[in-house]
Amino acid sequence: MTGIIRILVFSLSAAIYLFIMSKTLGKKQMGQLDVIDYMLGIAVSSIAAEWAIDSGNAPFYHYLAAMTFFFLVNLLIIFLERKGRRIKKLIKGVPLMVIYEGKINYKSLKKSKMDINDLMAKAREKGYFDLSKIEYAVFENSGALSIMPKVEHKQLVVEDMNTAKPKPMRLPYYLVDDGHIIYSSLRTLEKDEAWLYQRLNIQTKKQLKNIVLAIYDKEKDKVDVSEKSAQ
Q: Which of 58, 75, 227, 231 has its CA 20 to 30 A from that of 187?
């Protein structure tokens, strides 16, 4: 029993260390994985590799206990993320707007652990060899770069053919995410919770929990709502 406890203690220490290391390295080191997936992937893979080449110095259930520990850690993180956006932000981080309205946000670029050459390389991967053609670019938690081009450089769609002049590109306002109010969007719109509840046609927080996503179109003054299935 003492040996298993020792393994679990060492596993917890390794988890904390890997988390700090992964956050320090930055998102660009992780490809399509976020910090937690990257950390747990390394930890479990290392334990499995050591188990595979073990010469019998440790009982097999020690390795099982360690891998089970990291599995339970993952489940706990998923549970905590669903409890609130602040916890999710602390654990997973937030996407960074590295280009806003056609201008490079060097503060966000620095936070992402990228330089201008990294940004240009990621833009080229998306088919944009000229940053001046980009209206918005978001560095996602996975390390991917999401791009919204300027209106004159976007692909032509049917809607554009019915208008004399293409509409300028604008980011959507996300008001609710998985039952949680996004207060930064309300502040940008200079609105309050009462306005949000009225637009969502709800009265209580319990009803808010049934909303998966709510997006506000400022131009049309319309809120698109996606609710949880009744099943």
A: 227
Q: How is residue 156 annotated by DSSP?
A: P
pLDDT at 196: 92
Q: Are 211 and 187 in contact (CB under 8 A)?
A: no
213: left (phi over 0), alpha (psi -120 to 50) or beta: beta
- Residues of the chain with pLDDT > 70, as a percent, come to 74
d(CA 67, CA 208) in angstroms, rounded, equals 37
Q: Which of 165, 176, 108 is nearest to 136 (CA)?
A: 108
Token pair recorded at residue 190: 């200079």
pLDDT of residue 231: 47
pLDDT at res. 222: 86
Q: What is the dihedral of CA 122, 135, 182, 179, to 10 degrees?
A: -70
CA distance 196 to 183: 10
Residues 6+ apart with CB under 8 A from 105: 96, 97, 98, 99
Dihedral sign from CA coordinates of 76, 77, 80, 82: negative
Q: What is the pTM of this model?
A: 0.55
Sorted by sequence, the CB contacts under 8 Å of residue 31 that are 6+ apart come out as: 142, 143
In this predicted model, what pLDDT tens digit does every residue of 160-188 receive, in sequence order?
Answer: 555 556 666 677 788 988 888 888 889 88
Kindly give the residue spans of alpha helices, DSSP state H, lying in 53-156.
60-81, 85-92, 106-111, 116-125
